[in-house]
Amino acid sequence: MKQPLLVFNEKGIYCEQADVYIDAWRPVDKCIITHGHADHSRWGHKQYITHHKNTSIIKHRLGDIIVTGKAWNETFVINGVTFSLHPAGHIVASSQVRVEYKGEVWVFTGDFKTENDGLAEAYEPVKCHTFITECTFGLPAFKWTPQAEVFNDINNWWATNQAEGKTSVLFGYSLGKAQRLLKHLDPSIGKIYTHGAVENMTEVLREHYDFHETIRITRETTKDELKGNIVIAPPSAHGGTWIRKMVPYVTASASGWMTFRGARRRRAMDKGFVLSDHADWDGLLESIKTTECEKVITTHGYTDIFARYLREELGYDARTEKTQYEEEGAEVGDKKEKEAAS
Amino acid sequence: MKQFAQLIKAIDSTNKTSLKVESLTQYFLNASEEDKLWTIAILSHRRPKRPVNTTLLREWATEISGIPLWLFEESYHIVGDLAETIALIIPSSENELDKSLSEYISEIITLKTLPEIEKKAYLHENWLKLNYYERFVFNKIITGSFRIGVSQKLMTRALAKATSIDEDILAYKLMGNWTPETTTFQKLILEENEEDYLSKPYPFYLAYAVEDDFQTDLGDINDWSFEHKWDGIRSQVIIRNREVFVWSRGEELVTDKYPEFQRFLEEIPDGTVLDGEILPFIDGDIANFNSLQTRIGRKNITKAMLQKTPVILNAYDLLEWEGKDIRQLPFSERRELLDKLISQCSCDEIGLYLSETMNITTWEAAAKERERSREKRSEGLMLKRKNSPYLVGRKKGDWWKWKTDPFTIDGVLTYAMRGHGRRANLYTDYTFGLWDGDELVTFAKAYSGLTDAEFRKVDAWIKKNTLERFGPVRSVTPHHVFEIAFEGIAESKRHKSGVATRFPRILRWRQDKPIEEANTIDDLKALIPK
């Protein structure tokens, strides 16, 4: 039997023909990286290949590594296998990876979302035979509201807090969500302050992207300065001593998990905005349809449920592979943020 | 409905009690009288009867959202709340529709009597017309569970602010057997009406557990009265107008479940309210609470049950005497009246006993008495300040419970289930096993005692070490040992292990212990009092 073009082994997603890994979770020689979140771009590979805008992100996170940058749609051939990167719309500089060998095409989404968020390069559907997809929010309970509406709510929330003399503290991962929030906050309301982890990453990204002015919170920042303004911080800053400086403050989290009342209450947030960097139920189904694929492999999220739906209701050849990307229903970001915030 | 949904949304949007109370107060100031009354009813667990069973609700909701039933079930296990799941999967619409809360509720009450096809049509129509939050609230009313992070106490506080009526007086008015169909806001809250008070219990005063070094904080030991703490059903028995009413702490009228207390009429005068514990009483002795379990859940009490597990009232306080509310009298004076009343009764005949006070003059003696509790089958000691009035609700200061240390045993985590509410989507409900040879036999389920951070860790571990899935339940590789604490233990034929434990909860995660060192079923059985 013919060896599949991509296999899942104990180190990651592997293309034997090219001897290349994608988003490997153990150190390997050559690894293509979809995006800069820690569960996808790990430490220890000898050679990294990623979109050129992502090179500075992973260098910031991983230090002195050997990395080659590629443009969108630029093909590169390794031992007869053609690779190319295509925007995934997940966060800034996030890619899907297209792999072609002897006329057979596979696509790995990494993480993706279908809505154009005005910052990350917009998701581009890529035709393929086998589609390896995340399904973090692969349940019909997840349906996103257009982001314009969500940001309208966020800015209104900020303005209301300001009118009550309070500081707004908005939580989002320091890479990706934080900049998406920053991009769409209304600077006419007040000043935008950032936690150190967010500020460091944003500085790296300013090389390629435009953002509103931000002010880093330091030991010298006073309560009075912050009053009425907004602070963007990673989720790990919630509940720590750092936040005490903001009193009186109101907290909010922006995440797909805020769909659930239980999740909002568990996190002890005042307010939860449903704003995700992953595809929702309809987005997942729509993108699978547009790839015109026959086979689907689900890698992380509600994998079993989603694959069963694809098989039983839509007739796809769908299965699940175990990976070490964020597991089903994981409290996403806990692990990754610890690192980013330090 | 918009106004009510807005209120629930506002309550949901904050973690601060003061802001929740403020939202409620504003609501009580602005809503119509009918809506206010229903809101009070819903938040004090007086809901209309469920008009549609949940099986049908699930079917109809999946039909309208075009997903298979199994996918709905999977989603429900993850969301952890039926009303919320239905609200989430139904497509949202822009239709504007505003019926008031009470209009909706009266429709829901009528719905119960309609044929199935009309029920379905009604639900489909309204699900599509309501926005997400309204739909959620609507479903909550239909499914009949309305825990939304507002206790009756908070609701009463807000109502007190809005009406300028004293909080304790309101708490009293809200007690008892009313529904919005039998009263009005005016009658229930604003008017004084003698008749309403006939069956009304007083709000229970609840004790706190003692804190570290409490002996020094409590001052002179002679200011305190000591009793044993018995494990039963906290109740008030009311004798007024030649009728007996029995109320449980959950504000449930349970008179019919304890026909024994009708005998009180023979010796207790009208205008008497007793506070105490309903206890199983077999062969002249207080029996294990477990023996009452079979009686508690039953709607109809049979003669056989009455013979097998008779109950008594172990009274410890007198709240009303000769028709007068005496809660403001000092505890010692209320006790004197109670002692006198019961000393004139034929206790064995009518099943009314006095919870005896102990003559304790030093903390050493108190500690010794507490040590002996388990022999006497009591849970520990109760400390009551002699000069204190009978307060409303859980208030620190005058009543303390000083329980015996719980039993503990080390069990192995064998199954996990997803939690509900704020633990939805996390595996937080665990089953534990003890060794029987080389097999682990289930002995207890527990879902409290770990911190949020620990739950997250265990949850992540469970997801990676699942053996099998059964709907919301997963079996896991035996690997983790937890120290389980529980209050009581008794033999049981209904449990696989042969043992029933009371209030099991997790005391500690024993990451230092390999599973081989967990306890055995025999270790557990050795704890059963002889």
Automatic annotation (TrEMBL), chain A:
The keyword Ligase applies. Residues 332-342 have a biased composition (Basic and acidic residues). The keyword Ligase applies. Residues 320-342 are annotated as: Disordered. GO terms for molecular function: ligase activity; RNA endonuclease activity. Keywords: Ligase. InterPro entries: MBL, RibonucZ/Hydroxyglut_hydro, Xnuc_lig_assoc. NCBIfam families: Xnuc_lig_assoc. This is DNA ligase-associated DEXH box helicase.
UniProtKB/TrEMBL annotation, chain B:
It holds the Pfam family DNA_ligase_A_C. Residues 304-436 form the ATP-dependent DNA ligase family profile domain. GO terms for biological process: cell division; DNA recombination; DNA repair; DNA replication. InterPro entries: ATP-dep_DNA_ligase (IPR050191), ATP_dep_DNA_lig_pp_1105_fam (IPR026333), DNA_ligase_ATP-dep_C (IPR012309), DNA_ligase_ATP-dep_cent (IPR012310), DNA_ligase_ATP-dep_N (IPR012308), DNA_ligase_N_sf (IPR036599), NA-bd_OB-fold (IPR012340). CDD domains: Adenylation_DNA_ligase_Bac1, OBF_DNA_ligase_Arch_LigB. Keywords: ATP-binding, Cell cycle, Cell division, DNA damage, DNA recombination, DNA repair, DNA replication, Ligase, Metal-binding, Nucleotide-binding. It comes from the Bacteria. It catalyses: ATP + (deoxyribonucleotide)n-3'-hydroxyl + 5'-phospho-(deoxyribonucleotide)m = (deoxyribonucleotide)n+m + AMP + diphosphate. The keyword Transit peptide does not apply. Gene3D superfamilies: DNA ligase, ATP-dependent, N-terminal domain, DNA ligase/mRNA capping enzyme, Nucleic acid-binding proteins. GO terms for molecular function: ATP binding; DNA binding; DNA ligase (ATP) activity; metal ion binding. Its EC number is 6.5.1.1. The keyword Cell cycle applies. This is DNA ligase (ATP). It comes from Cochleicola gelatinilyticus.
